[in-house]
Amino acid sequence: MAESIYRALRDGALEGELAPALTIKDSVASPFALQVFSHVISQLFSSILAGKSQSRGLVVVSFSRSPSFYLDLLKNKGTDVASSNKQIQILDCYSDPLGWKDQLAGSRNFTALSNEAMVSSNAIVFREVKHMDKLYNSIIELGKDQISSIFWLLHSDLHEARVTAVLEYLSSIVASLEPSHQLANGQRGDLENFSLIKHNSKKGKFHVRFKKRNGRVRVMSEEVHIEQSGINFASLPSEGAINQGLVPKVQFSLQLSEKERIDKANVVLPFEHQGNGKPIQIYDGRRSLVDSKHERPVSAVENVQTNENCGSGEIIYYRDSDDEMPDSDEDPDDDLDI
Amino acid sequence: MAAAKTRTSTFSRNLSTAPPSHGPGLKCGPNGTVFLSSGIPDLDKILGGGFPLGSLVMVMEDAEAPHHMLLLRNFMAQGLVLGQHLLYSSPARDPRGFLGTLPSPAASKDDKSRERDPDQEKGLRIAWQYKKYFGENQLDGQRDGKHEYSNEFDLRKPLERHFINGPRIDCVSIQDSDLSTLRDRCATFLSQFPRNDGSISCAGRIAIQSFCAPQCAYSNMEWDMLSFIRSLKSMVRSSNSVAIVTFPPSLLSPSFCKRWQHMADTLLSVKAIQDEDKELAQLLTGYQDMVGFLNVHKVARINTQVY
């Protein structure tokens, strides 16, 4: 599944669409985003060198690690960085992001330490991180061409919820790292928690949400192990959740046999034939009286109907049950109409 | 009760004047409301006829899926096909580009679905005491009047160009402009459809997409956005038009999210569906064809005492 992320970034933007954007976010409970980020960078760079990806170069904007970290990382993965000058450019926002060293050098006798000799020709120092426009322009200049894919690393604890929400809104893939075992709050001294903490420092869960073009969201999870040599992804062990079937097992049968089906079709339901234009007869249990009983309500209605369209409002009340002697028991079947 | 004309209710109104006739695309509803179609006939049915004129519809987007665009496309295309005026604004630099993706009305299918005998519904027969009051309603106004009010749209076919290039469409980009410019554009647009007691000649539609998107310069100014919505609601209420505003609720702080929801007359939300979710596939038939959920949270209650 980390494979799918890599493939999405490698394949880049399709015609007429926005480039894929990945957010990798973590928190203090499971702080492995940098390892994931390095993993993605090294995979992407090797595919760039091999010519398999849509993009032809990589621009790295480094804030929390020096450029040499990334160059060493790529060297360790076996890629030959020295000869691939054109294909990787690093914007160094780590050495002197706010331009303080320049200011110090200017104000008194201050010899700048010469660590900067280590900076290779790949890295360009950027000193004005506060000016977002300039940062943006420098990145675009280094990149030179259209952007094929973009990804960033985010520590969700360090930002307000709104900022994280905005970045997730803008990205097409969201990868988050969570601890395998949630720690119980406020019980630090517990033996059990110590072992959990120890577990959490070496592995975690990796959840990825892909926003697909048809509007669906693809959710995948894997387990992540951090080792000396790097990071390993493994599929999540299934948790053996109790999977109750959606149709509960009951003791009576819910299906109909053929004979039952025919019988059901033959049942005459009480109000079924109403609305067909025929006169409505209320069943009152005494069939012989049916005709005479109807005359009363019908005649009352008839006179009124001729006046219907004169423009006077009126109320017409149809009795539900036909004969209701004041002192008879209310028979609930009085208004059944079969 | 032999030749009784079936009544829809036990009251009949004292109608001295004939009801005013309205322009195309408008339908009279109960309590003197006039409806406008949303572009999706099924949604109109769920909402009780459509969107009432003068109401503000808000749609809560899902950050993970573009389903609100489907609602907007149908809404806008319906208005254009019926000759109603449209004001569209979006955070893109060039909102006109979106007009190219509007769908065209689907070729009308034959009305075989209407002739289905209600008693033969899939083997479920219902015995209902008040069925006799409803025989009339289902038949009138459903066949010929249908295409004058709402259409089904075919998303695969783009709308014909002469609809899009007409003088009735106005587009505003909200990426660089500020709220007062947008408010002025809405005000001039709505002044074309003042509400008075006579018949309505034409109606207007306003569609504002992704109102608090981060690309917009004002997206941090939550109180200003809220007051814009308030003034839009009052302008729309006194005119013959419907405004739809879509916004992603996760980008607002929780209290403002609630305030915006309370501002809406009709509140809808869209939600994405997870792909390859086996449980959902078992629960819902047609899971393969579905892309999302639409929730109706609130329906407009103008001109009514029903709560």
UniProtKB/TrEMBL annotation, chain A:
<comment type="similarity">
    <text>Belongs to the ELP5 family.</text>
</comment>
<dbReference type="GO" id="GO:0005634">
    <property type="term" value="C:nucleus"/>
</dbReference>
<dbReference type="GO" id="GO:0005829">
    <property type="term" value="C:cytosol"/>
</dbReference>
<dbReference type="Pfam" id="PF10483">
    <property type="entry name" value="Elong_Iki1"/>
</dbReference>
<dbReference type="InterPro" id="IPR019519">
    <property type="entry name" value="Elp5"/>
</dbReference>
<dbReference type="GO" id="GO:0002098">
    <property type="term" value="P:tRNA wobble uridine modification"/>
</dbReference>
<feature type="region of interest" description="Disordered">
    <location>
        <begin position="318"/>
        <end position="338"/>
    </location>
</feature>
<feature type="compositionally biased region" description="Acidic residues">
    <location>
        <begin position="321"/>
        <end position="338"/>
    </location>
</feature>
<dbReference type="GO" id="GO:0033588">
    <property type="term" value="C:elongator holoenzyme complex"/>
</dbReference>
<dbReference type="GO" id="GO:0000049">
    <property type="term" value="F:tRNA binding"/>
</dbReference>
<keyword id="KW-0963">Cytoplasm</keyword>
<comment type="pathway">
    <text>tRNA modification; 5-methoxycarbonylmethyl-2-thiouridine-tRNA biosynthesis.</text>
</comment>
<protein>
    <recommendedName>
        <fullName>Elongator complex protein 5</fullName>
    </recommendedName>
</protein>
<keyword id="KW-0819">tRNA processing</keyword>
<keyword id="KW-0539">Nucleus</keyword>
TrEMBL record, chain B:
<feature type="region of interest" description="Disordered">
    <location>
        <begin position="1"/>
        <end position="27"/>
    </location>
</feature>
<dbReference type="GO" id="GO:0005737">
    <property type="term" value="C:cytoplasm"/>
</dbReference>
<dbReference type="GO" id="GO:0033588">
    <property type="term" value="C:elongator holoenzyme complex"/>
</dbReference>
<feature type="compositionally biased region" description="Basic and acidic residues">
    <location>
        <begin position="108"/>
        <end position="121"/>
    </location>
</feature>
<keyword id="KW-0819">tRNA processing</keyword>
<keyword id="KW-0539">Nucleus</keyword>
<feature type="compositionally biased region" description="Polar residues">
    <location>
        <begin position="1"/>
        <end position="19"/>
    </location>
</feature>
<dbReference type="InterPro" id="IPR027417">
    <property type="entry name" value="P-loop_NTPase"/>
</dbReference>
<feature type="region of interest" description="Disordered">
    <location>
        <begin position="98"/>
        <end position="121"/>
    </location>
</feature>
<comment type="similarity">
    <text>Belongs to the ELP4 family.</text>
</comment>
<comment type="pathway">
    <text>tRNA modification; 5-methoxycarbonylmethyl-2-thiouridine-tRNA biosynthesis.</text>
</comment>
<dbReference type="Pfam" id="PF05625">
    <property type="entry name" value="PAXNEB"/>
</dbReference>
<dbReference type="GO" id="GO:0002098">
    <property type="term" value="P:tRNA wobble uridine modification"/>
</dbReference>
<dbReference type="GO" id="GO:0008023">
    <property type="term" value="C:transcription elongation factor complex"/>
</dbReference>
<protein>
    <recommendedName>
        <fullName>Elongator complex protein 4</fullName>
    </recommendedName>
</protein>
<dbReference type="InterPro" id="IPR008728">
    <property type="entry name" value="Elongator_complex_protein_4"/>
</dbReference>
<keyword id="KW-0963">Cytoplasm</keyword>
